[in-house]
Amino acid sequence: MRFRTVWYAVVLVFLFGLDTLPAPVPxxxxxxxxxxxxxxxxxxxxxxxxxxxxxxxxIQNALSPTLTRSALAEAMQPVLDSLPELAGARxxxxxxxxGWVVVRLPQAVSVPRAVQLLKAQPQVLYAEPxxxxxxxxxxxxxxxxxxxxxxxISGIPHLYPALWNMHLIQAYDGWQIHPNRYxxxxxxxxxxxxxxxxxxxxxxxxxxxxNAGGTSTDSxxxxxxxxxxxxxxxxxxxxxxxxxxxxxxxHVAGIxxxxxxxxxxxxxxxxxxxxxxxKIIDATGTGEDADLxxxxxxCADNGIPVxxxxxxxxxxxxxxxxxxxxxxxxxxxLIAAANESGNGGxxxxxxxxxxxxxxxxxxxxxxxxxxxxxxxxxxxxxxGVSAPGGSLLWxxxxxxxxxxEAFAVYSTAPSYSVPLPDAFGEEFYMYGYQVGTSMACPHVxxxxxxxxxxxxxxxxxxxxxxAIWRAIQRGADNAQQRTDGGWVPSxxxxxxxxxxxxxxxxxRNATVGCLSGQVYFNGTPVQGAxxxxxxxxxxxxxxxxxxSFGLWRIPNLPAGFYRVRATAFGYNKEFEWVEVVAGADTPxxxxxxxxxxxxxxxxxxxxxxxxxxxxxxxxxxTLRARWWSRDLETGxxxxxxAIGTSPGGSDVMGWTNVGVRTEVTFxxxxxxxxxxxxxxxxxxxxxxTSNVGVSDGIxxxxxxxxPGQRPGGGGRRPITVR
Length: 722
Known about the structure:
Layout: E1 32-34, E2 37-39, E3 42-51, H1 53-63, H2 71-81, E4 90-95, E5 100-104, H3 111-119, E6 124-135, H4 164-168, H5 171-177, E7 194-199, E8 231-234, E9 237-239, H6 248-257, E10 274-279, E11 287-288, H7 289-301, E12 306-309, E13 311-312, H8 318-329, E14 333-337, E15 359-365, E16 383-388, E17 391-396, E18 402-407, E19 409-412, E20 431-434, H9 437-455, H10 464-474, H11 498-502, E21 512-521, E22 524-525, E23 530-535, E24 541-545, E25 551-558, E26 560-568, E27 571-580, E28 585-586, E29 591-593, E30 609-612, E31 616-617, E32 622-628, E33 636-644, E34 653-659, E35 663-667, E36 675-684, E37 693-694, E38 698-700, E39 720-721
Parallel strand pairs: 7-10, 7-12, 8-10, 12-14, 14-15, 15-16, 21-28, 21-29, 31-38
Antiparallel strand pairs: 1-2, 3-5, 3-6, 4-5, 6-11, 6-13, 8-9, 17-18, 19-20, 21-22, 21-25, 23-24, 23-26, 26-27, 30-32, 32-35, 33-34, 33-36, 35-39, 36-37, 36-38
Helix pairs in contact: 1-2, 6-9, 7-8, 9-10
């Protein structure tokens, strides 16, 4: 699909008379044009609104004796009623987990006008359209591309089989490491790791989602599809029917997790997994932001660790950013397709959710690791990694003539008629070829599920989603051809390799990594903030400027620990001990600038869990501990640690800022026969501090006193943290 003309709507909210932010860019009143056909950019007669949490809380406190519905709805309706132009507007539904309201507008009121009116109200934190999202499936603009011989690679059939994509990423070699077996319907684990495919649904009866010997695609009976959690979400209404009426979702799901060794069709990268189809795209190829947000929250609340999104919108929705934060901080790894168009080439603009700072964005490669920029693919500073998506090459035939050959991705298609044609204009039935970033994305999601299953990671594994992210990037092949193994805006950190990722290899011998994140001021994303990264050891220093909606990246920094500071409107914040890992991203370094009482987050982080290094400590000079906390809105900004001889005490080491590190060895003075406790508190991006978490305690026992040292340690020494 040739992608849409890109318009950006800057969402800037004026709170309580704040006038230091730049003026907002008005929303377009006219529809976009896709291939000459007018298409709406957002859902008419709807807007999405987030009220300031303190206002909602005040309403809740005032009405608590008579409260009959959610505080969000009770707080929103008076705001609507106070605006004569919005007479008749009503709350259609609420998205409670992240504090948003879907408002139904009167028919005569345009969405841009409603957004303008609502953003001017002091109670409103955000107001924005309900932007439409569409699956990413380009229609190549070369007329020879469709004139392809039955989808077969005719010029070089022996070198490049139909499933060239699986050979290229060394999927088979990876399967020898894990799961190192093929499954039948009888022995496929019923609790297999889940991949959510948020798309147009799936063909629930396709034979390639049945394992050998089975008669059902239902994972309860040995199939590949989780019929229990699978659903559709349209207009916030959940339904158990996830049948694919377009064809896109079935193709994507097959790449991610079609059954293997079942004498049927194709293979999926993560055949060990089960697919949770979440249908938000209809038969016309259209869905909406609010339903994508509902889907993300549904995945997070149901503990689905891997989320594939081969879809997107070129508009920036803050509601989607909130949902991304919620799912990421709940432990999910979110993987999304990068931007594309029928023309391709260069930076064709961000696409969301891929460009959000906690989403692993996937760009495409071709059969020779070529980047299909002239065909459909675009570049961007949000790209994280690349995977096979298809391309066009000139191939020499037996008579010495050069012909354009299309190398598309072959996968499952519905077993019934759908409106989507295959990449060559033929009926998309049972199996077929497609090309695009939509196809690249599920290769990465499949690898994420394979790796998570191998390492036994769940959404409750501290830092598990980041570990998966980095393993995928570090194991990627050097399609970008950088001698330092670093990042480029077309391939990201390279084209994925299943075997290398499972082996935790730094496959390119990379020496550099990236930092990325977003900057907010008083809860609003801002462009133009200055970001500085300074090495904690050495002289490395890099500076960049936050781009559209506060998003930023500092590429190719030498590996090590950094202080990272953001400055805007006279405010600044600094992260400490931010680790840059060789060959991978450190994503989600988000800054929430401004006074604490102007932040949208009013909830402190979870109380940290704290683990020490055992019941008995055999050193009088070092103590090692680790901890973990989470905050579902603004993330963890820093940890502070104390050590004492009583739970929560600080008589051995006073409260010490350890930055964002979650594991530290402390150099302290300990005494034989005593028990020591590590206490930790977390601060979130909004400046709120958690309750104190305390370890179980470490008993110090030295069988033989070290030479020249008496039990008891000789008093307190200067504290160092390393």
